[in-house]
From TrEMBL:
The lineage of its organism: Eukaryota, Viridiplantae, Streptophyta, Embryophyta, Tracheophyta. Its EC number is 4.2.1.1. This is Carbonic anhydrase. PANTHER family: CARBONIC ANHYDRASE, CARBONIC ANHYDRASE XA-RELATED. Keywords: Lyase, Metal-binding, Signal, Zinc. GO terms for biological process: one-carbon metabolic process. Belongs to the alpha-carbonic anhydrase family.
Amino acid sequence: MKTIFISTFLSISLLFSIHLASSKKVEDEHEFSYKSGAENGPEHWGEINVNWTKCGTGHQQSPIDLLNERVQVNPYLGRLLRSYRPNNAIMKNGGHDVELKWLEDAGSIQIDENNYHLIRLHWHTPSEHTINGRRFAMEMHMVHQTPDGKKIAVIGFLYKYGHPDPFLDELEPYIKEIGNKTNEEESAGIVDPRKIKLGSRKYYRYMGSLTIPPCTEGVVWTIVKKIRTVSRDQVQLLKDAVNEDAHDNARPLQCIYDRMINMYDL
């Protein structure tokens, strides 16, 4: 009985943490936009809400340009340890992006002895991060958080135009269902994050922030070095699903300041 109680308590605690993590994402897409020059555009995010000041004043903001001259190879980072599992998920149209959110524990990653549980993933078109000034067709973010809700880690994948992405292809019917329906949710059934392959052990690592308000800093960023492929139709599907002013939902590049960019290259 004691074992069952502990197991149930841990499960409830984890789900509560996941709920808290999800609530940190801005739900009202009308509060901000990606349109440069607009009153609620990226250059003004830090002025819109008192809780968003980091968007304008922070020194650890994301995204950034991953410049070779700023990259240091660090073999001590080690391989990215992922332990995912399939579980129930929903597809949601947030107006400014399309999001896949797991309703139950979908596993975790381990970074510096911390376990970060997978909460959700979403897409940006075009990519937010660049490599030596090159911007890509799309970027996918897998957002993770520690059970206490205090630490966030994001794995980013960059895509160029080419063959369709198999994982996105599986989700296409659900994305179509919520297209142009802000705040609409659609059950995606059991979704297996293990189908998202790294494709390479090499990755970039730096400290940054969320790329949407409130632009929370202290986020551990991991950008997989291998560039994946996505079809033009798949990118257009994501663009068509969201609000018109979010078709290009990539935040402008932020100043690196004195931050280090590490790379695991083994």
